[in-house]
Specification:
38% of the residues lie in helices and 32% in strands. The chain has 374 residues and is of the alpha+beta class. α9 packs antiparallel against α10 and α9 crosses α11. The N terminus is likely disordered.
């Protein structure tokens, strides 16, 4: 018990450092677990430290606070961890499904409501081990706020040779703008007498294939002139109808230019080449224009080379499936979302990232030629 007191006391003795000027400018709020607390003792500044009453914070966290007048001691007792663990265990036992379909429906409801704890409650011990850290990282709130799951439906049920049941669940998505497609998940349920628990969740094979195509496109698009630092591909919707499939992905590519100096960047290199080849025949005014443009991009590119940038884009992918449910590569088509929210065909020739260094040098060269002809 003494050790727990020491830990709790150390937490409350840590106070936030703020400036006296900031405190004077605006009242400081005391917020515990997202809820504002109104202490009957005002917050005070002492030696640039914000002092807050222990009792209000501790009690808001479910702790008991006692004052021993004789010993002049404040005692803070946190709820026993075993009590919380016991409570969680009893709740999970109450939720434990006794039929395989009940397990799937309970898990799907957890997905719909973004309740990670409900999903976890119907997992097998093995699946719990695999997913615990992921649930912890997201604070037990899964999915994204938009689009969200509107409803779900079990569309297929089969029995495996080992006695487990395999279900295909279809989740329909909706956003503020309306329906946002659907996606499929294959769920394997096994019996752990007397309960049935989810033993495996498999990413929809079609969705995985589409995401792979998007990853290949982004790599091809960015690797020629940039160093890729991080790539994120998040599915916003996926729908399958007969042999037709369509998905929308939000993509982010964090990158820096793959050149050591601005003069090595192809389009800047073309600008410099124009000046070197044509300086003698240009008027002083034309030389000044070109030099100013080169100097401007020199500074811009210096910053770009040092500072990582992010390329964000929504991509829609369409394709056809063969008789085995695999994506036909030759049918895959990409579309990108323009600023108006419309999806336009993704044509590689329209994107500078796909152009060769020689093509970009020529573009920089022609840019300077047009500048002096104005």
């Amino acid at each position: 018990m003494g050790k727990r007191r020491l830990v709790i006391l150390s937490v409350f003795l840590l106070v936030t450092v703020v400036s006296a000027a900031a405190l004077a400018a605006e009242p400081v709020k005391l917020v515990v677990n997202g809820k504002e607390i109104q202490p009957d003792v005002p917050l005070q500044m002492t030696d640039n430290l914000l002092v807050a009453p222990v009792r209000h914070i501790a009690e808001a966290l479910g702790c008991a606070v006692n004052w021993d007048e004789a010993a002049r001691t404040v005692s803070i007792l946190a709820p026993s961890q075993s009590v919380w663990e016991r409570r969680a265990k009893l709740l999970e036992e109450a939720l434990a499904p006794t039929t395989p379909q009940e397990a799937v429906n309970r898990w799907a409801e957890g997905v719909r409501t973004r309740n990670g704890a409900l999903q976890y409650a119907v997992f097998s011990p093995e699946l719990r081990t695999q997913t615990y850290e992921e649930f912890e990282r997201c604070g037990w709130v899964t999915g994204v706020s938009s689009p969200w799951v509107r409803n779900y439906e079990i569309i297929k049920e089969t029995q495996a040779p080992d006695g487990s049941r395999v279900y295909v669940v279809k989740f329909d998505l909706i956003a503020s703008t309306g329906p946002a497609g659907s996606y499929l998940t294959k769920v394997t349920v096994k019996q752990y007498d007397p309960y049935w628990l989810i033993d495996r969740l498999e990413e929809d094979r079609v969705l995985a294939q589409l995401q792979g195509k998007v990853a290949d496109l982004l790599k091809e698009m960015w690797q020629q002139h940039y160093l890729l630092l991080e790539t994120s591909i998040v599915c916003h919707s996926c729908s399958v109808q007969d042999s037709q499939v369509e998905a929308v992905f939000a993509t982010t590519v964090k990158h820096v230019l793959a050149y050591a100096a601005p003069s090595e960047v192809p389009w800047q290199k073309g600008r410099i080449q124009f000046l070197e080849e044509n300086r003698d025949r240009l008027t002083p005014e034309q030389v000044r224009k070109v030099e100013e443009q080169i100097a401007f991009w020199e500074e811009e590119l210096k910053e770009y080379i040092r500072k990582p940038e992010e390329g964000n884009m929504f991509l829609k992918v369409e394709g056809e499936l063969d008789a085995d449910g695999n994506l036909k590569p030759e049918t895959v088509k990409f579309y990108y979302e323009d600023p108006m929210g419309d999806y336009l065909p993704f044509i590689r020739d329209q994107w500078d990232q796909f152009k060769s260094a020689a093509e970009l040098e020529k573009r920089g060269y022609e840019e300077m030629r047009r500048l002096v002809e104005q």
